[in-house]
Design a protein that fits this description.
This protein has helices at 10-23, 36-45, 66-69, 84-88, 104-117, 130-139, 190-196, 246-253; strands at residues 2-6, 28-33, 51-55, 57-58, 61-62, 76-80, 96-99, 147-152, 155-160, 164-170, 173-178, 183-186, 202-204, 209-212, 216-222, 226-231, 239-241. The chain has two domains: 2-139, Response regulator (Rossmann fold, 3-Layer(aba) Sandwich); 147-253, Beta Barrel (OB fold (Dihydrolipoamide Acetyltransferase, E2P)), CATH 2.40.50. It has a five-stranded parallel sheet. It has a five-stranded antiparallel sheet with strand order 12-11-10-14-13, with helices on one face. 29% of the residues are buried. It is of the alpha/beta class.
Length: 258
């Protein structure tokens, strides 16, 4: 079984590849892609795989956009952090969904379904209903991340966006900080995170910090026409809104568009 993984989180992609190979001993990972653009480019320049594992939310948009650019003629198993009950409503034909973090037994059942519907020598064309895809696109209209996968020792765990107090950058490393006071390293830079989180809830106050609106406990006038934020979570550094962002920050607090 030759499979392609489309996933924008490196740790999640590596874990998925490892589990697939543990379930199917002769499985071959023929490639990975981490965005809509790179997925289209890969598919246009490589032989088609037998099966695709496709994350719904990618760094540059929803993966359903890929179907508009290239003809996908192999079965797809989608992976997503969205509510399990909503997902069940869209299980049709050869399409299947796995809720993140992916459970190995659920993955095994999805692969078993693939094997029962498609033989290895002749993979028949998948049937994708345009109307269904439109409904799914509307369902996933919010393009922002709802969950992050982080590494804790040898383990992976998921954190809901509601648990994030702020993101920080220190010595070229990026960290996710929770309301419970814990900190986890991330692969993405703050520049990337700024496009992945909902701007209604998160604001980049400086080169070093992106903060959650709910984490702001107090706002104090500071020297040089700047603002100092007191967060509900203790921080060793001062949380200062950079001078050039003060007015934009005030507009954001009032609910105006950035």
């Amino acid at each position: 079984m030759r499979f392609l993984v489309i996933e924008d989180e490196k740790l999640a992609a590596e874990r998925l590849i490892r589990m697939v190979k543990e379930i199917v001993m002769d499985a071959i990972n023929v490639g990975t892609a981490d965005s809509v653009k790179s997925s289209i480019r890969w598919y246009e320049n490589n032989p088609r795989p037998d099966l695709i594992f496709m994350d719904i939310q990618l760094a540059d948009g929803l993966s359903f956009s890929i179907f508009e650019k290239v003809r996908i003629e192999v079965p797809v198993i989608f992976t997503t952090a969205y509510n399990e009950y909503a997902i069940k409503a869209f299980k049709v034909n050869s399409i299947d969904y796995l809720l993140k973090p992916i459970d190995k037994e659920e993955l095994a059942r999805a692969i078993e379904k693939f094997h029962s519907l498609y033989n290895k020598t002749e993979v028949r064309q998948s049937s994708y209903d345009a109307g269904l895809m439109k409904q799914v696109l509307q369902m996933f209209a919010n393009p922002y991340k709802t969950r992050f996968v982080v590494k804790v020792g040898e383990h992976l765990r998921h954190l809901d966006i509601e648990d994030v107090s702020h993101f920080s950058s220190l010595e070229k490393e990026t960290f996710l900080n929770t309301f419970s006071g814990k900190s986890y390293g991330l692969e993405q830079s703050l520049d990337q995170l700024e496009t992945l989180v909902d701007p209604k809830n998160f604001f980049r106050i400086s080169r070093k910090y992106i903060i959650n609106l709910r984490s702001i406990k107090d706002i104090i006038s500071y020297s040089g026409s700047r603002l100092k934020l007191i967060l509900s979570v203790a921080s060793e550094d001062e949380m200062l809104v950079s001078r050039e962002k003060v007015q934009e920050f005030k507009n954001w607090l009032e609910g105006e568009k950035k």
